[in-house]
Structure formats: C-alpha cells, structure tokens
Amino acid sequence: MPRGLFITLEGLDGSGKTTQIKRLAGWLERHNLEVVQLRQPGGTATGERIRAILLDSRSTPLAPMTEMALMFADRAQAIAEIIQPALDAGKIVLCDRYTDSTEAYQGAGREIGSDTVLALHRLICGNLQPDLTLLLLPGFDASLARARRRNVRTEAQAGIDEGRFEAEQDAFYRRVWEKYREIARREPERVVLIEGDLTIDEVHEQIVEAVSERLVLHEQIA
Prior knowledge:
With about 220 residues, this protein is α/β, with parallel strands linked by helices. It has a single domain (about 5-220), classed as P-loop containing nucleotide triphosphate hydrolases (Rossmann fold, 3-Layer(aba) Sandwich). Helix content is about 60%, strand content about 10%. α2 runs antiparallel to α3 (about 65-90) and α4 (about 100-110) crosses α7. The longest helix is centred in the middle third of the chain and has 25 residues, at about 65-90.
C-alpha cells in the first residue's frame, strides 16, 4: 500500500488554521480521500493532558527547556499513536502544528535556538517530516489581536484557560513571526507561504491549489 500524505498547518494563533484545516478536510473527503485530523499539542489522550499544562496561564513559571520537552513528548506520542499508523495505512494526515511550531515558538520565541530543536526532532521524532506545510501568515497585529480575543472568549464560554502564550509580549511574537518566514525561505519545496490579510475563501483557494499539486506529485511518486 502506498504511504499516505502528511500535511501540516502552521502560523501564529489567530491566523485561521483551525478554520482552514476543517475546510481542507471537507474538501479532501468530498474527493473520496480518507483523512485523519489532529492538533499539537493534543490529539491523543496523553497529548491533551500535556496541552492542558502547556497552555494554561497558571503554568508559570515554566522553564523554556521544560516547555520544549513537553512539546516533544506530545509529538512523540502523536507520531506513535496516530500519525505513523495513518500514513502506513495510506491515509492523509492533517496536523494543526508540528515541529515548525517548536522551532518558531521555543527555538526563536524562547531563544533556545533552531539547532537544539532540530536535533531533538531527529532524535525523538525519527526526523519524520511533513510532505507539505501550509504556513498562514496574515498581518501580525490583526492575527495576535484575534488570538487574544479568542482565548478570552473561550475561557468565558467553556471555562478553558489556554492563554499562557498569548500573555507574552509582542517582541516574543515578532521573533516567532520572523522564524516562520526563515523556515519558509529555508525549505521552499515543503513550505507554502500564504500571507496577507486574505478572506477565508481566498486562503482556502490557495490551500486547495497547493494540496492538489502535492497530491498529483504524490501519486506520481507512489
């Protein structure tokens, strides 16, 4: 059986990833393709417990190395439990965040450095790379403002506190932003950058175009 396709979505919180991954899943399923969705941190029972620690604003102070180690613990479990079995079964895996997020948030945001993050990725994740990464980078100020409003709304409505990262200063997010752009420049074959303040439909159209091209290539390789 041909290996499945591993697609990740990346970007700052508030960039529209959650909306777009749902729309992409629907588009793929309408084309009779079997899709598995997950998010990081989270996606497994263990991962959701790790997520609660990582994103809860009460989890402070949390040492940068502790934060990064928890991110990779979550990822290792997701690979073993969901991602690798789905790929082996020929399914399409859609993952909301992956190691690019760790490189951006912990490597750049926490100033741990990319080399450490990528070395851990090779060791802990067996260097499993996405076939395609869709990087959503709308305007910085609008994206960050949406993320902060969303977390306030989520806590008020559901009683879930996931605002620890959004409490960071803008300088932290600038470092994250610039690292994402650096990753896109470094790996243009894998990363498709979708930037600017586009409408939901415009972003979806660009995503569908990129995924369609990768599906054709994947079929040729398979």
